[in-house]
Design a protein that fits this description.
The protein is α/β, with parallel strands linked by helices. It has 2 domains: 3-36, no CATH class; 48-264, Rossmann fold. The protein has helices spanning 3-14, 22-36, 38-49, 58-62, 74-79, 95-103, 116-128, 177-184, 200-212, 234-240, 245-252; strands at 53-54, 85-89, 108-113, 134-138, 153-159, 187-197, 215-221, 258-264. Strand 3, helix 7 and strand 4 form a beta-alpha-beta unit. Helix 1 packs across helix 2 and helix 3 (38-49) crosses helix 7. It starts with a helix and ends with a strand. It binds S-adenosylmethionine.
Length: 265
Amino acid sequence: MNGWKLGYVCYESLQPSKSLKPEDYNLTAFLLLHLMGKDKLKKWAENKLFPHVFEPPLLPIIRGEQEFFMKGKWRSDFFRNDFPIVLELGCGKGEYTVELAKRESGKNFIGIDVKGHRFHKGAKEALQEGLNNVAFLRTRIEFISSFFGENEVDELWITFCDPQPQDHEGKRRITSRWYIEKYRTFLKKPSYIFLKHDNESVYRKALSEWPEAGINIGIHSNDVYGNFLSSQSEELKDMLTIRTYYEQMWLDEGRKIKYIEGILR
Ligand SMILES: C[S@@+](CC[C@H](N)C(=O)[O-])C[C@H]1O[C@@H](n2cnc3c(N)ncnc32)[C@H](O)[C@@H]1O
């Protein structure tokens, strides 16, 4: 199917309109392809075919009309084992999800992001590498408690989430207390929460807010690639030197990378 036809079909399925005349379709397809990019459409289409990518419609779930079919059943119905489950929140291209999955075959990893075309890269790599301990979920983190059952998740990685400096109530910054309460609904106690970030304010706020939210602060550093790593275990060194797309951008700009290990009780 060429790009024009694909745009036409997508437009039809997204927004069928009786008022649109056939001669308008070429223009619509043209605009659509240029607004979204052919590449994104291709990635969305491929995601739909991947057995380990979940893209449930959000509205019926958050309205309470429908329960997400995998909630509470990720181990039994998808991974088919009893291994711990680790989530990467705001996973972008899914670097941590895939790299940790390669290192730790005795754990299951789920990358979560609202942008499916981003995690398509990680989803494709997991498939090509034959990793059967990886899944991706496209959803908004604000509604994350609708997707996991009580005590279903063992660890969280939060990697370079958007810092949201204007978000004084903390309802958009996914490291805030408001979000921690949501994570508490599905995390086992105790469980680890790992944060990697370039932003000083996100780091400082997590250090001050997390203990109030019942999270003990373990190892932490405001400059991971300074002297910190030399005194850490080989295992931690290996995990912390996985570099995400955004991390590499910030390193190229000369920013320092921060890390916190929190234990939710
Ligand atoms: C700065 S990027 C970091 C991506 C990746 N972790 C990395 O380090 O390269 C932040 C990511 O969080 C996702 N994101 C932001 N807000 C979100 C939300 N409310 N729910 C789900 N994903 C969100 C974005 O789509 C984006 O991929």
